Amino acid sequence: FFLAAPPSPSGGQDKTFLFARPSALVPQGGHVTLWCYYRDGLTNFTNFTLYKDDRSHVPIFHSRIFQESFLMETVTPAHAGTYRCRGSYPHSPTEWSALSDPLAIMVTGVHRKPSLLALPGPLVKSGETVTLQCSSDIVFEYFFLHSEVNFEKPLHLVGELHGGGSQANYSIRPTTSALTGTYRCYGSSPLCVCTTFSLSIHPLMGR
């Protein structure tokens, strides 16, 4: 999953993207497939390499090249972290692209699950402000609020100490039904990789 040094030469400057399917939020023991794309995601590289920012948690595969996609199986907390990719061009296999933007792989189900509440309640009238509250009896440095429908990526919330645990609040004012959907809260422990999460069992339905 990690290469000790980038391949060379690396003169390509096309915008490179790294995608995870079905999601970058992966249950512990689950799987995720990574694709490296260029030209706004329209064409994937035939060959590509992966880099992990934290080198200490995943075995090192020197000069490993992947074809089309990479299936990450039986995911553990060690797989959590930030990844980047670099691809070679079909017309010039020895020419490599620039590194992609980072992609955070997040492993869920590692800690006890935080709770998610809607205050004053989950049934929201148009124009009414509702506060989503993530809380846990574990001290989490960060919480992440996720909605597959409403957020492009999970919202990053700073956890605050509360009653021996921690919590974070996020207020929204839904003016249309567009914010209706299921929300989940994830907590990040300061004792673990910052992208290791636990999945809430309290989804929020708003309408």
How would you describe this structure to a colleague?
Keywords: Disulfide bond, Glycoprotein, Immunoglobulin domain, Membrane, Receptor, Repeat, Signal, Transmembrane, Transmembrane helix. It is found in: Cell membrane. InterPro entries: Ig-like_dom_sf, Ig-like_fold, Ig-like_Receptors_ImmuneReg, Ig_sub, Immunoglobulin_dom. Pfam families: ig (PF00047). With 207 residues, the chain is mostly beta strands. The chain has 2 domains: 16-108, Immunoglobulin-like, CATH 2.60.40.10; 115-203, Immunoglobulins (Immunoglobulin-like), CATH 2.60.40. It has strands at 16-21, 25-27, 32-38, 43-44, 47-52, 66-67, 70-72, 81-89, 92-96, 103-108, 115-119, 130-136, 142-146, 155-158, 160-162, 165-172, 182-188, 204-205. Strands 2, 5, 6, 8, 9 and 10 form a 6-stranded mixed sheet that branches. Strands 1, 3, 4 and 7 form a 4-stranded antiparallel sheet that branches. A 4-stranded antiparallel sheet has the order 11-12-16-15, with no helix packed on it. The radius of gyration is 19 Å and the shape is elongated. The termini are far apart.
Task: Identify the notable features of this structure and list them briefly.
207 residues, mainly beta, Immunoglobulin-like, 2 domains, six-stranded mixed beta sheet, 18 strands, 43% strand, disulfide bond, glycoprotein
